[in-house]
Amino acid sequence: MTSITKLSILTGSLLTVLGVVLYFSTARESVTALIPSFLGIPIFICGVLAKDENKRKLVAHIALILAVLGALAGYGRGLPKLFGGDSGSAVLGMLVMSVICTVYVIACVRSFIAARKA
Q: Distance between CA atoms of 74 and 18, rounded to whole angstroms?
């Protein structure tokens, strides 16, 4: 199993757990607390599918696109609220999702560059 496969499975798992924790910590008020899970499950599935070498390139790029969207959405919605004085669990959850996605994106890009050189 390649490092990008393992990282996709780990990232997908972290985002899924984050979404579930946020959902239950907000007393199940809104399904939007599950957004990290909605992002994490497809990334996890991409990681599992990436075990097949024939599918690896495609699913790795799909997972990367999802992570970029997750990072941009989280920063775009979380930072303005944080600077506006809101520091509730929803805002912190958005920012944690963004950080997880950003780390994943950086690792993917580095992996893609290394694969291209090899």
A: 13
